[in-house]
């Protein structure tokens, strides 16, 4: 393995460099516009609602409007299984990362904050920008396990209450979840469905596809969804930048616990994910391709999940610390996710995955 060539190939890949620069520059633009008062305090919340209720569901559904093959299906199943396993592992491991804190409540909150990141709002737009529909599909499948534990385990631990009907409803009737399950089911069953002839928009070749493959059979419907899906990344990044512009960096930076948490969330958690995936790959227990690997590591390097922050604030569980941790982990993710992308690219170029 020629390390110099691998590094050169990675740092001259314009797709990767362009995606990283787009993410950083648009987040910076949102930050500047908020600081200048062009974006008001409601902008970030409003854009978040648009992205979560419209753009991401369209993105998730469209990602499944592709042909199915045995290899991708197997990797998708492995992603689904690993997406459940990794949260069980983190639920068990993350409390050990904070044993040096004597305050039991703080340990619990930090453990939950470390386990659950902003995979939907922060992770999927980045994955989509770099790895396209295949990455988006893997990210949507991976998020199934995330949603299950976020609205059950995280809620129960943070509230001290039993699971309620409201959270069950949130778990299954969330627009992104509905779009994901619908798309996943349609993607899996397409070999058994009635076929219609059409022109593949990518290859321009004549193909026979399942009647509901709207990318081929109803481009007039697929195109509006594509436009809505394409809004997810820039709107999410502007909202992230705007949100960062509302918080005092000085106040957040004084909190040593938040710095330690940020390191755990954006460095250690993705590292644990990488090690587990590497072991499963070399043992051939649950192999995944490079896009799946990259998708899951990026998802696990995301900052504090907004839902968990809401739990902490709503149930008065270390609310100030959570706000500071959310801010610093967002900054940390902006720095570390590009680094993880480069590391993954080097791993791929070296033929390790």
Automatic annotation (TrEMBL):
Entry annotated with the keyword Cytoplasm: no
Localization, UniProt: Membrane
Entry's Gene Ontology BP terms: transmembrane transport
GO cellular component: membrane
Pfam families attached to this UniProt entry: Mem_trans
Parts of the chain that traverse the membrane: 16-34, 46-65, 77-98, 110-131, 137-159, 171-189, 225-247, 259-280, 292-315, 327-352
Ranges in coiled-coil conformation: none
Main location: membrane
Topology relative to the membrane: Multi-pass membrane protein
Keyword terms of this UniProt record: Cell membrane, Membrane, Transmembrane, Transmembrane helix, Transport
Domain of life (superkingdom): Bacteria
UniProt keyword annotation of Transmembrane present: yes
PANTHER family with a match to the protein in the record: AUXIN EFFLUX CARRIER FAMILY PROTEIN (PTHR36838), SLR1864 PROTEIN (PTHR36838:SF1)
Protein's UniProt name: AEC family transporter
